[in-house]
Design goal:
Elements lengths: L5 H27 L5 H15 L10 H6 L1 H14 L4 H17 L5 H9 L12 H14 L7
């Protein structure tokens, strides 16, 4: 793992947190929107993750879905901190690690942190994790939901 470099390793950790949120969102959204098929639920979950992590839906397969369902996306964003309280620590850490990785690569993603704070997702009082602690947390929660083998 050290051979690849710290930034790619940290970004993989962020991706694991995104995957955990995606899985949980699919379960939650399929219960909230039983009238819609799984394609809708997957697109809605992906759109929410993209919004939280500052990924653009301006082009690509989610672009029209995001435009057509903007009000639903916003409603679900507004309730993330309520329905996923148990994920606020990993989300806070992943968003902050993403910010640090972006900064190292010359990108300013402070607006992503501010949006997460305004949505009640970001725990502002939580200290920034050291990279090793972040990776340890990701491995632990990844293993607990059968995404990682725990090694």
């Amino acid at each position: 793992m050290a051979e690849r470099g710290l930034i790619p390793t940290l970004r993989e950790g962020v991706d694991v947190v995104k995957l955990i949120l995606f899985r949980r969102l699919k379960e939650h959204l399929s219960r909230r929107f039983p009238q819609h098929d799984m394609d809708y639920v997957r697109k809605l979950a992906a759109s929410l993750i993209n919004e939280v992590f500052g990924e653009s839906n301006a082009q690509g397969p989610l672009a029209s879905f995001s435009r057509e369902n903007g009000h639903v996306i916003q409603e679900e964003l507004d309730s993330l901190s309520i329905h996923f309280k148990d994920l606020r620590i990993p989300l806070t850490d992943a968003l902050r690690i993403q910010f640090l990785c972006d900064h190292q690569e010359g990108k300013d993603s402070g607006d992503v942190l501010e949006k997460a704070r305004s949505l009640g997702i970001l725990l502002t009082e939580r200290e920034l994790p050291l990279p090793a602690k972040f990776i340890h947390m990701v491995r632990k929660i990844g293993a607990s939901v059968n995404i990682l083998n725990g090694s």
